[in-house]
Amino acid sequence: MPTAGKDGIDPADTPVVQWTNLRVRDGWGGRLLSGLDLTLNPGTAVHLFADNPSDAHLLMRCLATLDWPSRGTYCFDGATLPFTWYEKLLPVKRRIGYLYPTAAMVRNRTVEENLDYQAHYFSDTNLDRHQGVKEALVKGFGIERTLSLCPELIDAMEQRRAIVVRDLLKEPLLFLAEYPEEFVGRGYLALFISEIRKILLRGGVFIFTTNYRGFGKELSPLNLHLENGTLVKELAP
Amino acid sequence: MKWIGRTCGYLGRATLDFMGMALVRAAFTLRILTLLVRRPTDGRKQVKRAVVEQIYFTAVQALPLIIPLALLVGSAVIIQFTKLSAEFELGKAAVILIVREIGPLITALVVILRSATAVTAEMSCMTVFNEIEALEMSGVDPMWILSFSRFTGITSAVVCLFVVFDLAALLGGQIVAWVTVSMSGDIFLFQVARALSGTDLVVSLLKALLFGLIITVVSLFHGYTTVRKVSRIPVSVSRASVESFFVCMLVNAFVSIVFYL
Predict the structure, then answer these.
(1) pLDDT-based confidence at A123, cuts 50/70/90?
(2) Residue A86: closest CA among chain B residues belongs to which residue?
(3) CA angle in degrees (0–180, nearest 5) for B142-B146-B151
(4) pTM of the full predicted structure?
(5) What are the start-end ranges of the E strands in A56-213?
(6) What is the nearest CA distance from B120 to chain A, expressed in angstroms?
(7) Is A19 helix (H, G, I), strand (E, B) or coil?
C-alpha cells in the first residue's frame, strides 16, 4: 500500500488537494465547470452540494483524475499533476478511492482476484498486512461468500459492497464517494463511516455527495457548494 | 459553381478525417511498440499470466481448427495443380501457393475470426462497462495488462500457427500427390525443399509477424475507442474484423510486390 508524504516536507502541512483556477469540461454532456479554486487539508471531510448532480459527478471525476482539466493547476499531495503524461497519473490514481454509480469490477476475474489485484501488482505492497485488512473488511461488509465468484454472479448490492472493500483496501489519501449509502446500505453505514474516520486520521480527505439526510454528520464535514458551474464558497461545519 | 465548392469542401474534410484517423492509429501502434523495449516496473507476474493466457486462447485452442483446415487447403491446392502439370513442379506450386501466400493469409483469417473478434468484444465491453477505469483507478496501466499481453500473445500465436498451417498443408499435399499421381512422398518433399528458398521463409514469417501486429493493433484500437453504448459493441467488432482483414490483404500484396516482383 502506498505511503503518503514527501521527503523533507511534513505531510501534515501539505494540502491533499489544491486547485487553482481549474476549468473542466465533460466531453459527453457538454457541461462545463470553471474558475474552480479549492484547497483541502489533511483530515478534512467535505459534503458536496450541487444544483445539478451532473456537475457534482464531473467535479468528482476531475478530482479522481478521470476527467482532465483544460486550464488551471491541480496539485495532489504537494505535486502538480502532469495531465499530458498519462503514465504519471497512474500512481496518483492509486491513492484515490472513488465510489461512483457506474463503478465496476473486472468481470473475468473473481471478486477475490479483484480485491487482490492491486496488492499483488505492486511490489511495494505489504501482503501480510493487506491480507489481514482484507479479511477484516470482507467479514465486516459481509461478502465472504462472494470471494470465489465472478462479479456477474453475485447480486448488485454485494457487488457494490465489494467495490467499497476494494477501494478501502487501497488505503487512499483521497476518498471520493457519490451516494455512498447506495453502496453500503443502512446496514453497513456505521462500519463504512468508521473506515472513513481511519482515512481521515491518517491525514486523508473524504468528499461525498449524498441523498441520505444526516449521512456523515459524525465526521463534521465542510459544506461545499457547486452552483452554476463553479464553487461558490466553503462553509464551516 | 457552388457544387465545386461543396465537392472541394467534402474532399478536404474527408482527407483531414482520414489523416486524423491514420495519425491516431499510428500513435497507438507506436505506444504499443514502445512497450516492447521497456520492462514493467511492477506487475510482471500479472503481465506474464495475461500473455500465457492469450497464447493459449489464440494458438493452442485454434489448433483443432487450423490443422484440418490446412490439410484441406493443402490437398485442394495440390489436386488442382495435378490437373495442370501432373507430377511436375508440384513442390514448387506448393511453396508458391501455400508457403508464400495462402499460409499467412488463412492463418490471419482464422486468428481474425477467432481472436480479433473476441479481443475487440472484450475490450469494448471493458470500455463500456468502466472496467478499464477500474484498472486505471488501481494504478495499473491497461496498456501493460491488456494491450501488451494481447499484442505479444496474438503476434507470437500467428507466427506459430503459420508454421503449423504450412506443415499440415504440405502434409495434406503430400498425401494427395501420393494418392492421385502415385508420386512417392520423398519426391514431393524433395521438390518442396528444392523450391523453398531462405527468402520464402523470411518473407512468410515477416508476413505472419506483420499480420499479428495488424490484427492486435486494429482490434485493440476499436475496442478502446468504442463509444460508451452497448449497441456500439457489435459495430466495433464488425469494423475491427473487416479492417484487420483488409489491411492484412494490403500488406500481403505490398510485401509480395517488394520481394517477388
Answers:
(1) confident
(2) B141
(3) 130
(4) 0.85
(5) 71-76, 79-80, 96-99, 174-178, 205-209
(6) 15
(7) strand
